[in-house]
Amino acid sequence: MKDKIKIFLDSDLLEQYLLETTSELESLQVERYIAMYPEVRDTYAELQENLEIFAKLHAIEAPQDLKDKISSRIKTDRKERKRFYSYTVAASITAILFISISTFFWNQNQNLQEENSVVSNKIKLLEENMKEQLEDVRNQFIVLNNPQTKKYNVKGNQKAKDLKAVAYINPVKKLSYINVSKLPHIPESQCFQMWAEVNGKMINLGIIEEAGDQQKLLALPYAENAVGYITIEQKGGNHAPSVENIVANIAY
Amino acid sequence: MSTLLENHIVELLQERNEKAISLLYDNYADTLLGVANKVVRDPELAQDVVQESFVKIWKKADSYDPKKAKLFTWLFRITRNTAIDKLRSVNTKSDKEIQIDVSDVYTLGVESIKPELMDVQEHLDRIEDKYQIVLEALFFQGMTQQEASDELEIPLGTIKSRLKIGLRELGKIYGPALIAMILNIVL
Question: Which end of chain A is more exposed for a tag (fewer CB within 10 A), N or C?
């Protein structure tokens, strides 16, 4: 250990460290030795003292105006620093403001885009709906005004004597409609459902609402020798017609 | 330099109080100007060096670590490095080589020495030349030990030993008298 310290002190690392001419690695080594060995620490302290003494031997009186120059430069530096800091603060605030505004607008933009897509979807749906309705109205018009349209009065059977409906069938345009003008009273747990048997297949045409729909023409799928049925079903409708509950049929 | 004053200056520096610079100047400027002058060997340039050094000291105040070096050591390093850089830039400009003239060591005019330090000059004159030359070459001329060895035509080993002895003996020979005198100046 002693040898190690002696070798270290005999080298000029400590002197070089004093003058800051050591490499980074050497500095770390010197600092480690100073921290670890009191002998090295004392030598380093002594070297520092001696350096100060040696330097003092060469002192020259420093003029007052040099002090004034230094003071004014440091004041300028402080001001610049302050200005720099205020610029930094201003820049930071601006940046934060800009980011917030950007985020705000970005969010707005996202929201608007979403709304836009919802609205355009709605418009598309409405358009389709309107086209369908227009087509329906046009067909109704064709059916009702065409001289070739045949009009059938439909009446209910024993189970629904009050049921009255009119079916309009146009074999030329292959369009058929039914207008259910009166429905008999049935318990609330039940409803009327319309069906059409086309080419041997039973097609569900939906539930006939008692109110409101009375003046509405319900389109029937057209086919040669098709049969339309009205049945009484449980509320909410059924997947397949209950044959025993057929209250009216229309052959067209 | 009393440790108390040193500590006070360090505290002020770390608080970024301008008073620190004033105190530093009052207590160290003479020595640092001497160091700068020894390196650049031009009194006006030396003043520029001291000015730049003080600005650096002010700006780098945060980097000073009292555990690693005495305040003076730190100030000395900054001033010395600034002076060496200055000398290099001046020499680059004028395309001159750094000429170390050994005979120039004592040419510093006596009238430029602080009167209070006249005795010190006498002490300095008494230091053995062989140590002085080596110490000056290394401390003030910014030479590495190898450069000093080449320039002064002294073997590297001798440079090392003279540096060591010169520096360590300096304290022993002149330390007490000098410290007493400096205390007289300060008080």
Answer: N
Please report the ipTM that was assigned to this predicted complex: 0.74
CB-nearest to B31 from A18, A49, A59 is A59
Q: What fold is seen in the domain B100-187?
A: Arc Repressor Mutant, subunit A (1.10.10)
Tens-digit pLDDT profile for residues B43-75: 999 999 999 999 999 999 888 998 899 999 999
**Residue B174 identity (one-letter amino acid):** Y
Residues 33-72 (B) with a CB less than 8 A from some CB of A: 33-35, 37-38, 43, 46-47, 50-51, 54-55, 58-59, 68-70, 72
Q: List strands edge to edge, sheet with A150-155.
A: A150-155, A164-170, A175-182, A217-220
Taking only the tens place, the pLDDT of each residue in A65-84 is 999 999 999 888 777 877 88
The string of DSSP codes covering chain A is: -HHHHHHHHHSSHHHHHHTT-S-HHHHHHHHHHHHH-HHHHHHHHHHHHHHHHHHHTT-BPPPHHHHHHHHHHHHHHHHHHHHHHHHHHHHHHHHHHHHHHHHHHHHHHHHHHHHHHHHHHHHHHHHHHHHHHHHHHHHHHHHHH-TT-EEEEEE--GGGTT-EEEEEEETTTTEEEEEEEE-----TTEEEEEEEEETTEEEEEEEEPSSSGGGPEEEE---TT-EEEEEEEETT--SS--GGGEEEEEE-
Residue recorded with tokens 């297949």: A201
**CATH code, B1-99:** 1.10.1740.10
Q: Which two tokens stand for residue A250?
A: 């229309």
Residues of A in contact with B81 (CB under 8 A): 20
Record the pTM. 0.55
List, by residue range, all CATH 1.10.1740.10 domains of chain B: 1-99
